Amino acid sequence: MACQMPRRMRLTARLLSASPVELVVEPSVKVATLKLLIEEAAQLPPCRVVRCLVWGVAELPEEASLQELGFDGSDELLALVSDVLVGDFEFCIPVYSGCPCCGFNFEIQSVQFCADGTALIQAEPWEGTRRFLYKLGELRGAERELEFEEAADVTPPAVYAGTLYVSTTDPMYRRVKIPELGIDVEDVQYLKQQDRTALQQKLEFFFSHPHFNHSRDWVMQNVCNPSAVTTYDAEILEAFWWSWPREKQNQEAEELAETYDAIHPKKIRKQKIPEQKKPRRRVRGHRPRPRD
């Protein structure tokens, strides 16, 4: 007997803050994928996501399919929507000394906010990340309260308060502070506009190093982002790859200019000391004639 293909099902997802959404999906669709389909159908803004789906009184696990859960579309699903903060944040102060490859002498902090309500935090360069569950709190003008609960096997879990600052004049500028963790980071998208991301500063340090004589293939393979959290490496590396000829040309032009500006040793002439006039000797008994 031939295997029967699964039929498509029609389902309704009810959002508390919007009209119900009707979808036609395969029974094999995963809950995680269904959440994305509901967000698209409901035209939710980027700052809002479907946090979970509820069938009856049970929350549906994301890795399970509707068929595995026994859902046939006859009942409504409840989609719980919440605000989220998504994006990468960084703080970096390069120390222009020592070897430019490793970046251990950089001061760097990184925070990555994910749509699933988690945040990955790195407090030191090349340090492992810590995973937190974050919640958005009350909005007060340009500031919004944040709460971070460490996702570790500790009872009770550590909870830290933070603040999200959003500029009223430049929406690209966002800043996150978590005082108890010593975190003070800025939006990577804004830092890219200012050429101040950790990777950009590290590459600039590498290009300006006095012993810099490697090919750009070697640089791109050996210079990596000192942040273990942020994920813009490919974009920045591509930009520097294509700007490499200009960087080398500028460097060679500066070296050539310094060579021609220097005075050649053979052209250095001693300055002549002006001769002083000798005083006239007076002859004894001789008096100068008075002038008329």
From TrEMBL:
Basic residues biased stretches: 278-292
Family matches, as InterPro entries: Ubiquitin-like_domsf (IPR029071)
Residue span of region Disordered: 253-292
Record-given protein name: Ubiquitin-like domain-containing protein
Organism name: Symbiodinium natans
Lineage, opening ranks: Eukaryota, Sar, Alveolata, Dinophyceae, Suessiales
